[in-house]
Amino acid sequence: MKGIFDTKRNSGYDDEITRQYHFPPQYRAIADQLVGNWIIYREPQRNQGRRAYIAAARVLRVDPDPARPSFSYALMGDYLPFDQPVPFAGGGGYREAALREVEDPSRVGAFLQGKSIRLVSEADFAGIVRSGLDETLAPENSVRLELDPLHVDHDTLSLVQAPPEEQARRIEQILLNRKVRDASFRRQVCDAYDNRCAVTGLRMINGGGKAEVQAAHIWPVASGGPDVVQNGLALSGTVHWLFDRHLISLTDDYRLLVSHNKVPSDLRTLFARQMEHLHLPKDRSLWPHPKYVARHREAFSSN
């Protein structure tokens, strides 16, 4: 059993879709059915939404809202944004079977009123998610994203090299595969930073199209951090090593912090011109989220 959660900007609900989805009482019974199962987030056109499916996640549990007992929170895990938004309708019509059955397409909006949480078939779920991961799973991107035989195990290789129809049948394995998730994260972070190290500003790409820069999680996945661009930095190998060990960190205004008593002096030259600012994405919405930065800085301060 799979589901769809509609998510709107400025909806008035206490949503943070990487970890929680807030909803009123009429949806509780459906949400309870989805505990332990996967859902797809969709943005309707209202509130300047993209009228597209944007991510997948898993419902871990449903808890009452302590401030508004009739409302509830779906606690989410394994959030994975799609490579690109998947349009609500494709070449063959709407992507959800229930919508394809609406005789008058102009009535689809009315049909969806009061259905912000709804069930979706396994086949439709798999088709939408597979479309959402199209760039990550594209064979031509395997070397650039380190999904090639030199970097992945046999089981992962069998997933990424399978035909799209087989990948759709094994979509839950793909969603949980760490190598695939890392590849999706790497692609989105490196693209956002134009393959340039946020600290040194260096941009190097080899003949196979693979960037030297790496995608670093700010709040580690092992500690609950999400695989989203706002929880990432594009960093060269040495800088990534220092960042993961909390020998360098960030201020709230995106300046570099360096543990001078622990970073060797010959490495400090890497940071000589970066104390005032980092090289960040042109799109400010993709800049590191202050909450994730604060978590990293706490570890840096206690290091």
Automatic annotation (TrEMBL):
All copies of domain HNH nuclease, residue ranges: 197-250
Pfam families: HNH_2
InterPro entries on file: HNH_nuc (IPR003615)
Protein name (Swiss-Prot/TrEMBL): HNH nuclease domain-containing protein
